[in-house]
Amino acid sequence: MRLSLLQTYQAIVETGTTQGAADKLNLSQSAVSRRLTQLEEMLRIKLFIRDKTRLIPTRDSKILQAQMQLLLQRNEKLLSLASELRQGNSPAIRLRIAFPASLTLSIVPAIIKQFLERSPLVQVELHSGSYDTIERMLLDERAELGFLRMPVERSGLAENPLISVNTVCVMPEGHPLSSQDVVDVKDLVGEPLILLGRMRAPRHEIDALFSQARLRPNVKLEAHSVLSACGMAASGLGITLVNELMARDYAHMPVEIRPLKQSITHSFAMAHPLDLPLGEAARQFEETTADFLRTHFSRFARFPDP
């Protein structure tokens, strides 16, 4: 049933005249009369009887009033929900996002806080895992948005590049190399190193760097997350080489962070399933993430052109 017919019926009940309903709905009296006729023809019931200038609901109309009002309320709820969804701010929205665990100490909570200040009604569900896990979560629709290292391994994902950073050295606080503004790979000869696992792409690039310099790294520990690598460096177990974005999430630890002279670039993107367009809340979260990174990491990071 057309919403306009329900609204016209309700306006006539409330005002008692077609002119009153016309004024309430900002319509002409003839338009109100046409709508009433359409509704009565649709229901095949006489809804009002005329008493001079007033319209009095019939017995059948009074019986139908509750259902009419219920339909009108449901339509209003539907329109209200649609408006909230268009704005990306509704308690009905459960936004599922996925990030590497190494970003979830302070960076991701700060992004979520900024997003919820903008869209306070949205429920956010945060997942964490490896990049491979995040890609599978997106393709399985267990997450709507995921933070991934570029290039993305699997097909079927759309990428929105966010930020590029270089590899840095994270060393225990007070380490002799912390007196240098920049660390050369040659400076790391003999130093106990904490490197990411050999199956990870950043490790391949670090191994290639040592190989090109004809140096053998002194790998004492292998870690499978930037979080654990930085934690072990903070404990004095060695120096780790990780991307600067995630390293900055652990700058509060007893560590020193220094640039690596040789450039190893890490680029990151927000991704979503290619065949599923982003909802407005997800689009706004992606926008909030990009704004946050530009605001807080512009000193050392590079960003795609707006």
What's this model, at a glance?
The protein has 306 residues and is an alpha/beta fold. It contains ten helices and eleven strands.
Please describe what this structure looks like:
With 306 residues, this protein is α/β, with parallel strands linked by helices. The chain has 3 domains: 3-87, Arc Repressor Mutant, subunit A (Orthogonal Bundle), CATH 1.10.10.10; 94-162 and 268-297, Periplasmic binding protein-like II (D-Maltodextrin-Binding Protein, domain 2, 3-Layer(aba) Sandwich), CATH 3.40.190; 163-266, D-Maltodextrin-Binding Protein, domain 2, CATH 3.40.190.290. It is built from 10 helices and 11 strands. Strands 3, 4, 5, 6, 7, 8, 9, 10 and 11 form a 9-stranded mixed sheet that branches. Strands 1-2 form a two-stranded antiparallel sheet. Helix 1 crosses helix 3, helix 2 (18-25) packs across helix 3 (29-43) and helix 5 (107-118) packs across helix 10. It is rod-shaped.
SSE diagram, text form:
Layout: H1 3-15, H2 18-25, H3 29-43, E1 48-51, E2 54-57, H4 59-87, E3 94-99, H5 107-118, E4 123-128, H6 131-139, E5 145-150, E6 157-172, E7 193-196, H7 201-212, E8 219-223, H8 226-234, E9 239-243, H9 244-247, E10 255-259, E11 265-273, H10 280-297
Helix pairs in contact: 1-2, 1-3, 1-4, 2-3, 5-10
